[in-house]
Design goal:
Largest sheet: 7 strands, parallel
Number of strands: 19
Helix content: 25-40%
CATH superfamily of the largest domain: NAD(P)-binding Rossmann-like Domain
CATH class of the largest domain: Alpha Beta
Order of helices and strands: EHEEEEHEHEEHEEHEEHEEEHEEHEEHH
Distance between the termini: 66 Å
Structural class: alpha/beta
Strand content: 15-25%
Radius of gyration: 23 Å
CATH topology of the largest domain: Rossmann fold
């Protein structure tokens, strides 16, 4: 296999990773380029190299074999990493919003997204996020790492989190986005950052989260326990859209829910990252808890959805909790863009 070292502006990388000829056509831009790419393919029959500048080096090894889907790319980071560079483990809805907001505050930084598969790598590249696949060797560590991947796609969530902490260089911040589920309250009572958590052994779901949190805290990272996430009407993200689709739901109408918009979860995450704190747990919510019934009444009143909700018919499932994150807000100086679900919908309270 021959190797060719190419230096081209990062702005010209997008859309070229699947086309070596387009990459080669960019050689003329190498003299003062801000990013370097090392690209290896079996069908290259020549080798060349250029001097290194003080920018991160993105090393991409791409093997091309007959029948290989899309010439599978494996990326690893080599060379210098910038002081504000960010690794997002699990760049889904939340991770992508974090990337957008982080870049606004840190122009010129490099943002990398680690995924389980390469299915959405093209989307990430278009957003300016350099994709890598879990398990790809990374020779340099990052000053900022945020773990946004859910536990549903892995048999060893704490192990995956531990692996992610190894990509952190101990500077900046490591942040794990957890859930408010571990708070031990199921009677619609009040709950804040100091509320005790569910004991290990009572619930598999909370066991997984608490064990992952423990890994992060022991590594010096921070945790945000997020309430229920929702986003715009078009993207249909949130419990309310699920219930709207079902129409009749066999759960209690008086169960208290806690919400936070994806944009606010992202801005809160960035607020924690920027503080460079160690071993802390924060809570993300809008401080306006609502019952399931109240949520769906607001949805109906808004007139922004094309159908009406049916009913909640359950009577025996557990109740919820009323979250307040006043301590988090005071310490971080953070306030949400959407102070309540009603505000998001444009419905007077």
């Amino acid at each position: 296999m021959s190797t060719i070292a190419v230096c081209i502006p990062s702005s010209r990388i997008r859309g070229r990773l699947d086309s070596p000829k387009k990459l080669i056509s960019d050689f003329s831009f190498c003299s003062n380029s801000p990013a370097f790419i090392s690209f290896s393919r079996r069908f290259f029959s020549f080798s060349t190299s250029f001097s290194v500048v003080n920018r991160p080096l993105l090393k991409i090894n791409a093997s091309s074999t007959v029948g290989a889907p899309n010439g599978e790319l494996e990326a690893s980071i080599a060379g210098m990493v910038g002081a504000n560079d960010l690794l997002i483990v699990g760049p889904g809805v939340l991770g992508r919003i974090v990337a957008e907001k982080w870049r606004e505050e840190h122009p010129g930084c490099q943002i990398y997204g680690q995924t389980m598969t390469s299915d959405h790598h093209d989307e990430l590249i278009k957003m300016g996020i350099t994709p890598t696949t879990k398990g790809t060797p990374v020779s340099n560590k990052f000053p900022y790492v945020i773990f946004c991947a859910p536990p549903s796609r892995t048999p060893d969530y704490p192990g995956d989190v531990r692996e992610a902490t190894l990509n952190w260089n101990g500077e900046g911040s490591f942040l794990f986005t957890s859930s408010s589920a571990p708070y031990d309250c199921s009677d619609n009572g009040s709950c804040d950052e100091e509320t005790p958590v569910v004991p290990i052994g009572r619930s598999h779901r909370t066991d997984v989260l608490l064990k992952a949190e423990k890994v992060v805290l022991e590594a010096g990272g921070c945790v945000i326990r997020l309430a229920g996430l929702y986003i715009s009407f078009i993207d249909l993200e949130g419990a309310h859209t699920y219930w709207l689709e079902k129409g009749i739901c066999d759960v209690r109408p008086d169960h208290i829910l806690n919400l936070i918009h994806y944009e606010d979860a992202a801005s809160l995450s960035i607020a924690v990252l920027k503080k460079k704190l160690r071993g802390r747990i924060f809570l993300g919510c809008d401080n306006h808890p609502l019952s399931r019934q109240e949520v769906m009444e607001l949805v109906d009143k808004s007139g922004k959805y094309g159908k009406k909700f049916g009913a909640f018919t359950g009577t025996k499932d557990p109740l919820g909790k009323k979250l307040s994150n006043s301590k988090t807000r005071a310490e971080l100086g953070w306030e949400p863009k959407y102070p309540s679900f009603a505000h998001f919908l444009g419905v007077p309270q």
